Recover the amino acids of this structure.
């Protein structure tokens, strides 16, 4: 894989969360360690040798630990693992909505991310208003939205009511028509009917043929094996396997 082909380069990526039992513990963590350090510095100035360790009022949770991977343009990478294994955290970091605790993340090109059903949509708005709202959030200018609007509406094929499936149709239609070089999908296609899912996969194939990279999170191993060349298996935040999708599915 040459460096010129790589659109996603992740090296030793880790994400840590601080878990507090109560809001009071969060306040303690904000104030008391600083006070403790001040007291320790005063003790050092007075040449008091005994120093107490700085207390902490949270427990650590590592959603990701030292994950490394590379994805090239035109490739489809499956991301699999049990719930809580770090899949969504990884995608959110790649999409730029989360900041890693450590490690390097380099993403080249425009990213279209379908991470949460209905994200960026207002149920009080019309379908047209939601298209313009979401497209603006994704960075398109007015002329670009106008040029794509008919394609988005034709692809979504929605009415005036909003079920979860309708949100999916509209969200995917917008994301699939912004000419992104990287498409990230987190389980969103699981709620669509079989005909719309087939339509989505055909569109993803078209994007892949034009050189776009696809990242797909799914619990459906047949989908992973059929649509992805490679897959990464995450377990408790660590990459247990990266390789051919069919082999990763068997490990899972």
């Amino acid at each position: 894989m040459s460096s010129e082909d790589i659109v996603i380069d992740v090296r030793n990526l880790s994400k840590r969360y601080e878990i507090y039992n109560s809001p009071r513990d969060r306040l303690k963590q904000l104030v008391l360690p600083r006070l403790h350090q001040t007291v320790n510095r005063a003790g050092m100035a007075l040449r008091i040798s005994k120093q107490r360790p700085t207390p902490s009022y949270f427990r650590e949770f590592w959603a990701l630990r030292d994950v490394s991977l590379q994805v090239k343009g035109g490739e489809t990478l499956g991301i699999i693992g049990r719930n809580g294994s770090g899949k969504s955290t990884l995608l959110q970091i790649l999409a730029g909505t989360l900041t890693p605790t450590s490690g390097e993340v380099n993403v080249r090109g425009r990213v279209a991310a379908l991470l949460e059903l209905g994200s960026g949509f207002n149920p009080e708005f019309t379908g047209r208003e939601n298209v313009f709202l979401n497209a603006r959030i994704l960075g398109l200018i007015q002329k670009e939205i106008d040029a794509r609007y008919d394609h988005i509406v034709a692809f979504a094929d929605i009415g005036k009511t909003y079920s979860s499936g309708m949100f999916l149709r509209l969200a995917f239609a917008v994301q699939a028509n912004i000419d992104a070089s990287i498409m990230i999908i987190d389980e969103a296609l699981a709620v669509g009917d079989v005909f719309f899912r087939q339509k989505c996969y055909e569109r993803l194939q078209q994007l892949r043929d034009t050189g776009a990279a696809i990242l797909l999170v799914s619990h459906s191993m047949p989908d992973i094996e059929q649509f992805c060349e490679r897959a990464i298996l995450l377990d408790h935040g660590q990459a247990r396997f990266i390789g051919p999708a069919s082999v990763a599915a068997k490990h899972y």
